[in-house]
Amino acid sequence: MSKENVVVVTDSTASVSKNEAAKYGIEVVPLRLGPPVDPDRNRDGVDIDTNGLVELMDKTGLIPKTSGPPPGDFEDAYKRHPDSDIISIHLLKKASSTVSSAETAASEVAASRSKSRRIVVYDSGTMSMGLGFLAQMAAELSRKGASIEEIIKKLDSMRSRTEIYALINSMKNVAVGGRLGAITRLIGTGLGIKPVIKFTDGNYGIYKAIRSENKALAEIVDLTEAHGRENGLEKVAVVHAGALETAKGVAQEISRFYPEVGIFDCGAVLATHAGPRMVGVVAVRK
Fold first, then answer.
1. 3-class DSSP state for residue 29?
2. Would the pTM count as exceeding 0.90?
């Protein structure tokens, strides 16, 4: 097995806390939020967190736009590791400019690096702890001496085995973000309709529209259990946007068939698009 040193870079939509990033040695580059967020304090997970973002939206009635990190932020991260290979793992490309920004930075920095040291930008095809699990695994493999090629092979495998199921409580945020199109706005006109969104291997859309929050949450638990029915589950995380108590309830239900489930804050940028009180599950099957 190769013993080359591979540094892992990801972005703030990975839902990886500062402590976890330090534990795994992961560089986290923050996405940005627009007005009403202060333009001088607009870095996701650095200047503003999920709770602060939800409070600001409640206070102003405004939903900020979001943007990927500027290439300069990635350049700074890459330049901190001139003597290491780098794998930069990011939010799915079809939903953000983050991958493109990282690719631009990688091209710029490559000219000043040794040709034997590479920067590989990897489209995770997912988000939140779907991305977080990939970054954590890459860092663990790097510590064991894995090469970039070996890490990418493992990333491809985990990506193909990862699904996310999310309950959207704020149709306003999703409609403004435009990520799911006009069908979301139509569903939002129905009294008590709660859409469950499903993400799998780079694709996402409305899986089912359900008439109550409790039934939608039960559907998410059922989907999680079904995902691991054939081979079992390797990793499970419950993620939320200012809905900790609800997330705890979902985690308790999941613990019946997967005891090691964790609970994670999704971060301000994802909360902007998914809306307050979003609850989701990231499930990786074996």
1. strand
2. yes
